[in-house]
What does this fold into?
Amino acid sequence: MTQPIFAMFVVSTNKFGRQTKGLFWKEGGPIIGVQIENEYHERGPGKGPEHMLTLLRIAHEAGLDAPFYTATGWDAAEVPQQQFLPVFGGYADAFLGPKFAETTTQRELLLHSHSLRRKCG
It folds into this structure.
């Protein structure tokens, strides 16, 4: 990670930590996991597991203290096995295909998401 991007990550992680204070499981909240990295495949000094452990340290320092930490594990990603749960998944919209897109507009999806947000708090 380049220095300016790394600095932005630290700032945004600290902001996220302040915004989620009191919401983590150990505080009685619903958050049980944090995804630290997504589709990261770099290798070499300062990369791979070393990079992910640095991000985990920053997350801890920002107050993101969860029982589980994840990182995408597919495509031969080097995920630190003691600290992370490697996750594997797909894109939820892939099975919907063009027929779904023809019958559901973006506006309908947006209205539905706002409705769910109101119901869930």
The CA atoms of residues 10 and 58 lie 7 Å apart. The chain has a mean pLDDT of 80. The helical segments are 3-19, 48-61, 97-103, 106-120.
